[in-house]
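Query structure, 558 C-alpha cells:
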C-alpha cells in the first residue's frame, strides 16, 4: 500500500510516466495549435521551438493540455506561463534560496493573496508600483501579485544609493514600493509612497490563503531601468502582455533550455537579462536557484550540489567563478551543466576560452539590450572559432549595420547596430525613444559582420574616441590588454587633450602576484596595433568601477 502511495505521488509530480497513456495522446500539430491559440502572433517555427522546450517524453501528455487550459484566460502575458506551470507541477519547487523555497502552487496562491491585500490597501490598476527586492521568492511574489492587479511595475536597482533611489521614485511617479526589509530606512524619508516591506508582505500572504482573482482587465507594463552608466537611469517600458512567441523563441532556439530544468540565476532579477531568464524558467516549470547577493563560491556550490543544468550570469560573475582556486573548481561536480548563458556586457576572449576549456561546450553569449531584447546569440561552436563574437542574428530578429546616413554597410565595415524585433520596448517613460531608422531601433553600439555572418561589437557609439583625427574603438585595445596574463582587467577611455582633442587613457588592474609597467604595455600595443592606438596615459588601480550588472562606469574613469 505504501508503495502504491509513493507511486501515485511520483505520478502527480511528473517524475514517472503512467504505464499507458494512449488515451492522452495528441499530435505535435494539435499541441502546436493549442500553443498558438495563446500567442497567435508567433510563426509555426517559433511554436515548434517552444513546444520542443516545453514538453518531455517523461511527462504525462495530459499535463501539457491542462497547463494550456490554465493559461488561456491570461492570453500571452507572463501570468499565462506561470498559471500553466502551477497547474502542471503544483508541488514542484519554483524558486529557492538558502533559507526559503516556494512551490508553484504556493507562488500562484501567494501572489493572489498579495494582489488582494494590495487592492484592499488602495492600490488601483492606474497606479505605478516599484519592486525593490534582491533575488528571492519575495521578488517573484511581488512581481506576479502586482501583475495580477494590472498596474505598471518599475523594477528598482537594489544597488542604488538613497539619493538616487529617491530621484528615481519621484521621476517614475511611484505610489507603492514592495521592498526587502533592508531598504526600510532609505524609504522612510520619502513622502507620498506606501512602502510595504517583506515582513508586511508575508503577513498579507498568510491573511488571504484562498484568495481568488479574475484575470486583470489591463496588462501591466514592466518598466526596467537602463543601466545608468551615463546619467540617471531611464525607465524602459514593455507590456507584460506583448511578449510574442517569436521573442521567446529567439532565445530558446539556440539555447537548449528544457522543461523542468534546474537553473541557477545569478544575474539580478531587476535587470532585463535576469528577468528574462526568470520568466523563461517559470514558463518551463523550472526550479530556479538564486541568492540575494552574488558569491562565486556559493554559486559554484549550487551548480554542484543540485546538479543544475543551466547557469545565468553577467560576465563579471563568470570571471569571479573562474578566478576561484583550481582545487575548488576541480572539486565541483558540473557534469550536468549544459548551459552557461551570459549577457549584459562584452565577454573577454580570454574568459571565453577559459570557460570552454573548463566547463566544455556550454557557453552562450547573448547580445541585446533592455530596449531591443535579444539581437544575436553566439553558440559554443561560434565562440570556439571566434571568442569575441556576439554571434549570429537570433531567430525572427533583423540586425542591420548602418552608417551615419542610414545606409547599410558591407561585411567587415563598422556601422551602428540597428535591430528589428517583435520583443522591442514601447519607449521610455519620459516620453523619449531610441533612434529609429526604417523601423529598426538603435542599440547605441557599433559593430561589424564577418564573412560568416557573425556579429562583432566594437563598443558604444558614445565610447568611440577621436584622437588626432583618428577614430579609435576602445574594445580593440581592451581586448589586447585583457588577453595579457599579467592583467586582470583593463578599460580604455578618452580624456580631453588640447593637442589631440582626445587622448587615450588606459586604466589597468594588474593580476595578483604579477607585475607590468607602462612602457611594456606601450610596446605591446604598438607592436600589435597602430601607434595612434597607444594610450598616452596609464593608470593602475585596484578595481574598475562597475554597476550592479557588471558594466564598467566609464564616466568615472575620465
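Result returned for the query:
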Amino acid at each position: 500500500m505504501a508503495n502504491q502511495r509513493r507511486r501515485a505521488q511520483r505520478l502527480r509530480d511528473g517524475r514517472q510516466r503512467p504505464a499507458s497513456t494512449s488515451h492522452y495522446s495528441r499530435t505535435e500539430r494539435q499541441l502546436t495549435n493549442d500553443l498558438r491559440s495563446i500567442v497567435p502572433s508567433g510563426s509555426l517555427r517559433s511554436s515548434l521551438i517552444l513546444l520542443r522546450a516545453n514538453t518531455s517524453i517523461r511527462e504525462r501528455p495530459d499535463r501539457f493540455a491542462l497547463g494550456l487550459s490554465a493559461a488561456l484566460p491570461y492570453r500571452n502575458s507572463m501570468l499565462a506561463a506561470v498559471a500553466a506551470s502551477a497547474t502542471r507541477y503544483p508541488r514542484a519547487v519554483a524558486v529557492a534560496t538558502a533559507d526559503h523555497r516556494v512551490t508553484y502552487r504556493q507562488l500562484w496562491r501567494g501572489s493572489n493573496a498579495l494582489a488582494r491585500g494590495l487592492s484592499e490597501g488602495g492600490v488601483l490598476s492606474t497606479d505605478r508600483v516599484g519592486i525593490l527586492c534582491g533575488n528571492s521568492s519575495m521578488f517573484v511574489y511581488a512581481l506576479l501579485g502586482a501583475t495580477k492587479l494590472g498596474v505598471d511595475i518599475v523594477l528598482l536597482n537594489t544597488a542604488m544609493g538613497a539619493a538616487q533611489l529617491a530621484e528615481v521614485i519621484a521621476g517614475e511617479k511611484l505610489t507603492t514600493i514592495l521592498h526587502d526589509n533592508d531598504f526600510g530606512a532609505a524609504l522612510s524619508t520619502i513622502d507620498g509612497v506606501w512602502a510595504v516591506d517583506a515582513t508586511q508582505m508575508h503577513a498579507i500572504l498568510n491573511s488571504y490563503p484562498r484568495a481568488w482573482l479574475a484575470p486583470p482587465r489591463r496588462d501591466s507594463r514592466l518598466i526596467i531601468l537602463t543601466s545608468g552608466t551615463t546619467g540617471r537611469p531611464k525607465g524602459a517600458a514593455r507590456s507584460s502582455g506583448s511578449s510574442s512567441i517569436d521573442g521567446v523563441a529567439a532565445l530558446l532556439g539556440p539555447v537548449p533550455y528544457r522543461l523542468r530544468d534546474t537553473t541557477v540565476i545569478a544575474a539580478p532579477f531587476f535587470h532585463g537579462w535576469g528577468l528574462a531568464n526568470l520568466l523563461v524558467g517559470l514558463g518551463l516549470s523550472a526550479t530556479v536557484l538564486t541568492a540575494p547577493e552574488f558569491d562565486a563560491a556559493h554559486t559554484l556550490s549550487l551548480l554542484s550540489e543540485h546538479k543544475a543544468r543551466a547557469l545565468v550570469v553577467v560576465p563579471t560573475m563568470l570571471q569571479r567563478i573562474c578566478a576561484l582556486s583550481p582545487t575548488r573548481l576541480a572539486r565541483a561536480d558540473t557534469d550536468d551543466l549544459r548551459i552557461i548563458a551570459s549577457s549584459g556586457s562584452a565577454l573577454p576572449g580570454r574568459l571565453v576560452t577559459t570557460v570552454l576549456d573548463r566547463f566544455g561546450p556550454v557557453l552562450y553569449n547573448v547580445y541585446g539590450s533592455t530596449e531591443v531584447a535579444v539581437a544575436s546569440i553566439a553558440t559554443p561552436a561560434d565562440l570556439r572559432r571566434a571568442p569575441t563574437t556576439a554571434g549570429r542574428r537570433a531567430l525572427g530578429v533583423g540586425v542591420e549595420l548602418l552608417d551615419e546616413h542610414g545606409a547599410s554597410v558591407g561585411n567587415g565595415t563598422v556601422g551602428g547596430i540597428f535591430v528589428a524585433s517583435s520583443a522591442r520596448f514601447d519607449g521610455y517613460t519620459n516620453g523619449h525613444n531610441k533612434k529609429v531608422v526604417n523601423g529598426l531601433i538603435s542599440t547605441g553600439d557599433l559593430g561589424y559582420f564577418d564573412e560568416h555572418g557573425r556579429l562583432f561589437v566594437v563598443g558604444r557609439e558614445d565610447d568611440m574616441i577621436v584622437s588626432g583625427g583618428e577614430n579609435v574603438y576602445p574594445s580593440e585595445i581592451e581586448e589586447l590588454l585583457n588577453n595579457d596574463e599579467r592583467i586582470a582587467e583593463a578599460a580604455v577611455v578618452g580624456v580631453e587633450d588640447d593637442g589631440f582633442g582626445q587622448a587615450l587613457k588606459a586604466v589597468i588592474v594588474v593580476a595578483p602576484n604579477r607585475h607590468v609597467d607602462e612602457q611594456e604595455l606601450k610596446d605591446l600595443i604598438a607592436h600589435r596595433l597602430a601607434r595612434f592606438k597607444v594610450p598616452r596615459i596609464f593608470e593602475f588601480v585596484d578595481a574598475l568601477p562597475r554597476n550592479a550588472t557588471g558594466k564598467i562606469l566609464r564616466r568615472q574613469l575620465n
